[in-house]
Amino acid sequence: MAKKIDLTDKVQIKGIRKRWLLNSISVVLLILLLTFGSVAAILFSYYYSNTLVDLEKKSGSLAHGFRNYTRMEYRAAAQQMVSNYEEKSQLELQFLDMTGAVAYSGNDLTAGTIPNTPDIREALNTQTISSWRGRDPVTNERIAAASSPVIYQGVTVGVIRYVTSLTAIDRQFVLAMGAILTISLAIFAMVYFSNLYFVRSIVEPLASINETAHLIADGSYGVQIEKKFDDEIGELTDTINDMSMKICQSERTQTEFISSVSHELRTPLTAITGWAETIQSGEIRDPQDLRRGMSIIVSETRRLTNMVEELLEFSRMQDGRFTLAVEPLDLKAELEDAVYTYKEFFRREGIVLEYTECEEDMLPITGDPERLRQVFCNLLDNARKHGGSGGRIDVALRQDILDAVITIRDYGPGIPEEELPFIKNKFYKGSSKARGSGIGLAVCEEIITRHEGTLEIGNAEGGGCIVTIRMQIET
Predict the structure, then answer these.
(1) Has residue 270 got a pLDDT over 90?
(2) Closest among 394, 391, 459 to 423, alpha carbons compared
(3) Spatial separation of the C-alpha atoms in residues 75 and 79, rounded to whole Å
(4) Which residues contact 418 (CB under 8 A, 6 or more apart)?
(5) Tell me: the pLDDT tens digits for 70-117?
(6) Which position among 12, 164, 317, 424 has the lowest Cβ density within 10 Å, counted as fewest Cβ atoms?
(7) What pLDDT, on the 0 to 100 scale, is given for residue 96?
(8) Is the pTM value of this prediction over 0.85?
(9) Nearest to 147 by CA among 156, 155, 137
(10) 12-47: pLDDT as tens digits
(11) Helix, strand and coil percent figures for the chain, each rounded to 5
(12) How many CA atoms lie within 13 A of 185 on its CB side?
């Protein structure tokens, strides 16, 4: 029974989590900081820079109206304007003299004071409109002010100054920045926790896969991960589960193979040892019994030799030492040699071997005659072992355009449908009780494949098994 691992039982893969969060969160944090800085600059310009521009326009416009006033006329008009000024609750209007002192103001408290702020000094010294933002030297209140010189015939006769408190603007700016900061923190928190959840959905399955890999490496073949995702992680889970099951199956198959080979080797060895000891003891007096015993020893020795050769062939296949000694040959002649070799042997066992040859005189191919003869003999022997109960085996050779097609059919019970996909796998014996190592067909397919041919095994119509070999004919 394959063991299941729950995805919730995990070790933490801190490296991936840390790198993921560091990379993604740092990018998001940088974007939020840039956005916050940009919005702060826009709001600052909206609240403060625009305020100073508006004040400059007002003071400049009013100073332009006083451009034809002498110093005395300027003072008289300033006094009258201040007395009729109606916006004093929102915006303070000041008229300054040449010394920078406030001569008249919409706010009586500032009359007679000398603010001496940069905007006033610049307006007096350069005769240009100037603005300033800072703390009032008299009231220590944050203010914004704009001063415009009143010039009569090239001489500055006074300065018109607009002043407004920044308390309300500061409050609005702080509230706006606080709201933006709150939204930014909320976005950051959402991104952080969503990334944390997302990376967790990746890290935990990977931790499970990592744990499973360790279990497989420690020999727990067949262990399974519980699949909870139908995405790339799910596909990886399926792959690991499939690998685990295949390793388990391979391990079980190899164990069965060792057991089977051990049994296959023990049986002839037992016969050889038994007859050898009997002959050595001198108990056999009858020459016929002696010949029979020696015949059994020779037969079982040959069977052992064939099994060892088969195992050696398979070993060469596994480590890459399996090679072909190719040469031009006649496929028809090679097949007929194998058929005639087995025909008399089958007849003695009560099996009729029917051979249907092709019409062509020869079928030239390039191949290894020894290896091909090994394939034909192995397939004929398999037909005898697994389908000999049908009493008949048919071998046919024909040409199909540029291919030579060989079919070997028996009339036995056939192969169970569920076993057909695995019948050529190494070590696989299925439900068959016939003696053998389970690697013969794997060796046969390797030989045919290296000859750039194909070997197919299936059930024939009417019962029995049929093997089909296709090889390319030389033209």
Answers:
(1) no
(2) 459
(3) 6
(4) none
(5) 888 888 898 889 888 888 778 899 999 988 999 998 877 677 888 889
(6) 12
(7) 93
(8) no
(9) 156
(10) 445 666 777 777 788 888 898 999 899 989 988 888
(11) 55, 20, 25
(12) 6
Asked if 120 and 159 count as a contact pair (C-beta separation under 8 A), the reply is yes
Return the residue matching tokens 């990376």: 199
CA-to-CA dists, residue 379 to 105, 443, 463, angstroms: 120, 11, 18
- The sign of the torsion formed by the CA atoms of 116, 120, 124, 130 equals positive
What gap in Å lies between CA 356 and CA 434, rounded to an integer? 27
Of residues 6, 119, 112, the one with CA closest to residue 59: 119
The SS3 assignment for 245 reads helix
pLDDT at 198: 78
> Which range scores top for mean pLDDT: 11-25, 40-54, 193-207, 413-427?
40-54
Assigned token pair, 55: 């004040």
Q: Which residues pair with 95 in a beta bridge?
A: 104, 160
| Burial class of residue 117, CB neighbours in 10 A (0-12, 13-18, 19+) | buried
353-357 contacts at long range (C-beta below 8 A, 24 or more positions apart)? 353/380, 353/392, 353/393, 353/395, 354/392, 354/393, 354/394, 354/395, 355/394, 355/395, 355/396, 356/394, 356/395, 356/396, 356/397, 356/398, 357/332, 357/397
139 phi, psi to nearest 5 deg: -95, -10
Residue pair 194/171 in contact by the 8 Å Cβ criterion = no
Do the beta carbons of residue 330 and residue 471 sit within 8 Å? Answer: no
Residues 381-404, mean pLDDT to the nearest whole number: 88
Residues with Cβ < 8 Å from 173, sequence gap 6 or more? 43, 44, 47, 48
Between CA 253 and CA 245 the distance in angstroms is 12
